[in-house]
Design a protein that fits this description.
The C terminus is likely disordered. Helix 7 packs parallel to helix 9, helix 14 packs antiparallel against helix 17 and helix 15 crosses helix 16. The longest helix has 29 residues. A hairpin with a 2-residue loop joins strand 6 and strand 7. The protein has 23 helices and 14 strands. The radius of gyration is 25 Å and the shape is globular. By secondary structure, it is α+β, with helices and mostly antiparallel strands. Strands 1, 4, 8, 9, 10, 11 and 12 form a seven-stranded antiparallel beta sheet that branches. Strands 2-3-5 form a three-stranded mixed beta sheet, with no helix packed on it. The protein has a two-stranded antiparallel sheet with strand order 6-7.
Amino acid sequence: MSAASTFVTLEHMRFDNRNLEALPVDKSLNPNSRQVPGAVFSLCTPQPVVRPRIVAASPDALSLLGLDPAMDWTSPEFAAYFSGSNPIPGSMPAAHCYCGHQFGSFAGQLGDGAAMYLGEVINPATSERWELQLKGSGPTPFSRSSDGRKVLRSSIREFLASEALHNLGIPTTRSATIVTSDSTVARDIFYSGNVIQERCTVISRIAQNFFRFGSFEIFKAGNPALGVRQGPSAGREDLKKILMEHVITYYPDIAGESDDRTRYRLFFEEVLKRTVDLVVMWQTLGFVHGVLNTDNMSIMGLTIDYGPFAFMEGFDEDFTPNGSDGSARYSYKRQVAICKWNLERLSEALSPLLDSGDATRALTCYDDMFREQYAVRMRRKLGLLCVEEGDTTLIEDYFKAMGECWTDFTDSFQCLNILVRELCVEDNGTEAKIERAVQRMVSRSLSPEAIASAQTRKLKIVGGSRVPEGQLRMIMALIEADPQQASSHFGGIPVEDLRAEIQGELSKFDMASAIRKQTEEVTAMSEERKKERDGRVWREWLSRYVVRIQREMSPGSADERVETMRMSNPSFVIRNWICQKAIEAAEEGDYSKVRKVLELAQQPFNPDLSTFINEQSRGEDGYNEFLGTAPEWAPSLNALARRSVDEYQ
């Protein structure tokens, strides 16, 4: 059988909508915002748009569905199907009901406010099952005050991010298409009262499934009389078991276990393992998700729901791309701990099916699992093929140097790639090679002016609480003196939740003070003085690194070392300024830049895309405008990560 004969047309995709067959479904087709008890899905109807047209498509993602990667995806018929304007034969649109802890507090029912499950497609060549979704195709019962629509800004970011992370090797949902239209929706971009009309845009998403930690929180008990939220299916332990057994079918090696307790333990352990794998990849590639609520954590260990994400540029462990994250809860340095916190909430949601002792034992392993896998990844990034006792300190000091100098995350590892390639050449001049590496590191470290801009942005996010500090400290004193009275005074909020919230508000004052102090220190430096200081910092670390790596270097290991580093340290990531260039062009009707960025994102480890090769390239033709170093306006752009998200749904 030829490869071509295994492809199907859009009209003949094989849907096998197992989720809707196995799980309770609300069939009312009522799109009004409402609570949906006793159901995991709610049937919906995508709303058509005017003159849908393709912005971009990922043939690689489309091939997962059994579609020919060489098909004409620019046709009006294709756009009509992937905008929701025409139903795809065999599809059965529905929205998933889930809850979530948002910024540490249980938010009750959330659900797919803008996304719609179309069904599960069986690839005829591989027999793999893939869930297909549309995002932005209209309202669902979970849209709350929204219209279920998305716009070009957020759609382009999610499309590019999904495909970029996949090609980096980070587990992620996929995005196959972006379709825009002449239909419009009102959006207040900066929440300033200045409402504008933007084009309705729909993306398609693909994954094994889109179940989340929050999928199991629909059963969470509460106390509505005291204002404590509960899930829409609170108390439905029968439904919880049905959902859990169904989700476990996505883990065939576990589903065959006959003992219930063992099966549920193995399931939780596998989710934990996949979550560790995921956050290790994020941390070692400088990716910051931005909204790690429990409803944005995939049960399959995938990166899901791209909102105000960012690949870090000048290194700052406290960096958060989310303009609403006033306590920096979802900053780079906290992602590891937050993922564990979310797993703890998942274990609670799975109880009593999941034995509490089994959950505790699994969670106890989380930190060690992370440290071990992180060390393996970091050694590969540094080209250390052997393990030595001082490697952990060397790695920690690398990040300290990056943080002190505000050196670009991605480019700093490119500096190491170049240095090691030079060291593998059998000649003298080690000191000269180190010095060239020092200068490259310094050239990718932010200037005092750029740091001040980044810190100003950070202050706007965390700049203190709306509640006076003295009042917060009085509340904290009451919590410590009489927890029950404090809880009662605030409507019965659990004491630990109240304590965490007040501590979070107080931490904003401490963070703001630290930011101001650091900004004053940096801005007191001239640019030349900072370069000299950065040179000293990097010279000291690079000298130690060269001594360390030369202990294990041999002619026979050179090729393996260089290739290991090349495939561990990307040359190209989708930085915010790159996304913004593509967005601005698309908003003017030029979609070519979105497609060019996609092509670049599909080859992130191509050394020819390194900024060190392209730093002088600033032409507007081809791909050069997306390569090279960041433009002068880039440091202030991170704040726009917030405006590029019209809703976190």
